[in-house]
């Protein structure tokens, strides 16, 4: 169980929640929540118009709502805004959404009641995951449609997934011994106003990108060995002169992965090649830049995840409700664009290494990495598949944040597009993982041709993990199952774990 300390949740905890951990608020958060709810009651008692509490929403903010209709107002905003379309969001993303919303409300600036917090906590504790369509948010005024679908389940509308079974929300709540809420003033708006959908998707993309990045360091080193490339470009002195932290970290990682390689030692003195292709030689520069970008995105998302993106915000010490724009997800949109570019480049340089290995003129290995080319096609089409995936990622990497479209009758006239900018990341990371899986097979096959020479201990352990799932390719066979197994080694982290190497990640 992860204990959420609002404003102080580390990135590692969000990663653990994404992977399936349950979460609840720290006890110290509850007094602030109660104070915030009491402040809303005092604000209502003044009978002054306050946006989202006793007025309409968006372009209808000038419409005053009477006290008798305040509960209906909050129910209506949830039901009317639950207008998303598309496939249901993945379980890990939904779990993150719930936890992010809980932590945001737990700061005590949103005016929700303790019983609303209790229901959110209970849903997380029982792994009750609302069905949330993945399309319909423009990333301002908050992720309205997706969060409305989340909030709808709390009032008994919509659907919830329980242990893989999709049930009507009211039935799922009842099965867990819970009752739907009747929302109080401000609560509907507090639940559906915020960046939690965009942030959850961006965090999910970041975590998957980190795993692909680390696996690509292992396969990149293994490809260097398969091509009998040089480790001189990984010399720490080169990278110290430039000074980029990511480049230095990647150079160190590649150098250590290749330490004590017999394959490298075999051609250290008599290799006629002066320099390797960029896909080998410039790994520290390319992958290091990707690492720096991922770390910057991680810092932005860590801040966003610990912030409050509701509107209006309740300041209990002065009984004020201040309307602003914290719901605008521009920081998340920029972070998502950065992650997308990094994922694209990780896959792109890996595909170039695959292409180099299958080309005998560049690698010195048998054509398409098969002992009998011609009769066998070997790795010919897996390289084509990798090229197709990289090209698809290039198209998806176009920045989402540079787009905007007016909404809500031009009241919300500049939006971030963070939601779909973040939502594409899981698909992009999956594409890149397939590319790295293909590289793992190609690099292991290339090293097989160097027997009885072996690589370093770390890379031989990684190659052993590959060979434990996929035998050497002697003659052509059904390739797709081999690729699926190799990709699973990448996405599960098993390939990196097998190497035993400590590799740089998104937290420096």
UniProtKB/TrEMBL annotation:
Q: Which CDD domains match?
A: PAL-HAL
Principal subcellular localisation of the protein: cytoplasm
Enzyme class (EC, first level): lyase
What pathway is it annotated to? Answer: Amino-acid degradation; L-histidine degradation into L-glutamate; N-formimidoyl-L-glutamate from L-histidine: step 1/3
Q: What is its EC number?
A: 4.3.1.3
PTM characteristics: Contains an active site 4-methylidene-imidazol-5-one (MIO), which is formed autocatalytically by cyclization and dehydration of residues Ala-Ser-Gly.
| Record-level GO BP terms | L-histidine catabolic process
Q: Which Pfam families does the record associate with it?
A: Lyase_aromatic (PF00221)
* A GO term from the CC aspect: cytoplasm
Task: Please list the reactions this protein catalyses.
Answer: L-histidine = trans-urocanate + NH4(+)
What the record says about family reads: Belongs to the PAL/histidase family.
Its protein name is: Histidine ammonia-lyase
Q: Which organism is it from?
A: Sphingomonas lycopersici
Origin organism lineage? Bacteria, Pseudomonadati, Pseudomonadota, Alphaproteobacteria, Sphingomonadales
Q: Which gene encodes it?
A: hutH
């Amino acid at each position: 169980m992860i204990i959420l300390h609002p404003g102080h949740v580390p990135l590692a905890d969000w990663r653990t929640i994404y992977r399936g951990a349950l979460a609840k608020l720290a006890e110290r958060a509850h007094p602030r929540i109660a104070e915030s709810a009491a402040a809303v009651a005092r604000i209502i008692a003044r009978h002054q118009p306050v946006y989202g509490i006793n007025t309409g929403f968006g372009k209808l903010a000038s419409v005053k709502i009477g006290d008798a209709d305040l509960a209906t107002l909050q129910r209506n905003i949830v039901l009317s805004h639950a207008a998303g379309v598309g496939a249901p969001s993945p379980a890990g993303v939904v779990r993150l959404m719930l936890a992010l919303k809980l932590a945001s409300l737990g700061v005590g600036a949103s005016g929700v009641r303790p019983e609303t917090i209790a229901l959110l906590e209970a849903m997380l504790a029982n792994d009750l995951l609302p069905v949330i369509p993945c399309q319909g948010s423009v990333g301002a005024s908050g992720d309205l449609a997706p969060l409305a679908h989340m909030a709808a389940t709390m009032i008994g509308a919509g659907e919830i997934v329980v242990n893989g079974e999709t049930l009507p929300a009211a039935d799922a709540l009842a099965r867990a011994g819970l009752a739907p809420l009747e929302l109080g003033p401000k609560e509907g708006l507090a639940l559906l106003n915020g960046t939690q959908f965009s942030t959850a998707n961006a965090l999910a993309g970041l975590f998957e990108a980190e795993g692909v990045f680390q696996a690509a360091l292992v396969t990149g080193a293994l490809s260097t060995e398969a091509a009998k490339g040089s480790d001189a470009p990984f010399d720490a002195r080169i990278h110290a002169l430039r000074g980029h932290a990511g480049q230095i970290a990647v150079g160190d990682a590649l150098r250590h992965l290749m330490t004590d390689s017999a394959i490298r030692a075999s051609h250290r003195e008599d290799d006629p090649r002066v320099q390797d292709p960029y896909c080998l030689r410039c790994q520290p520069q390319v992958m290091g830049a990707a690492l720096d970008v991922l770390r910057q995105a991680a810092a932005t998302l860590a801040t966003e995840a610990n912030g409050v993106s509701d509107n209006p915000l309740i300041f209990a010490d002065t009984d004020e409700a201040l309307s602003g724009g914290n719901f605008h997800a521009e920081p998340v949109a920029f972070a998502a664009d950065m992650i997308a570019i990094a994922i694209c480049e990780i896959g792109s340089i890996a595909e170039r290494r695959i292409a180099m290995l299958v080309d005998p003129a560049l690698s010195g290995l048998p054509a398409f990495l098969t002992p009998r080319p011609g009769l066998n096609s070997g790795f010919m089409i897996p390289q084509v598949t990798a090229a197709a995936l990289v090209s698809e990622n290039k198209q998806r990497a176009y920045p989402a944040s540079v787009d905007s479209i007016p909404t809500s009758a031009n009241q919300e006239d500049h939006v971030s597009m963070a939601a779909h900018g973040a939502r594409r990341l899981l698909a992009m990371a999956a594409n890149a993982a397939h590319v790295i899986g293909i590289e793992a097979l190609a690099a292991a096959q290339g090293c097989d041709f160097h027997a009885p020479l072996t690589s370093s201990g770390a890379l031989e352990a990684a190659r052993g993990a590959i060979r434990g799932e996929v035998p050497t390719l002697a003659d052509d066979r059904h390739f797709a199952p081999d690729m699926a197994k190799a990709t699973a080694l990448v996405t599960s982290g098993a390939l990196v774990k097998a190497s035993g190497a400590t590799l740089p990640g998104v937290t420096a």
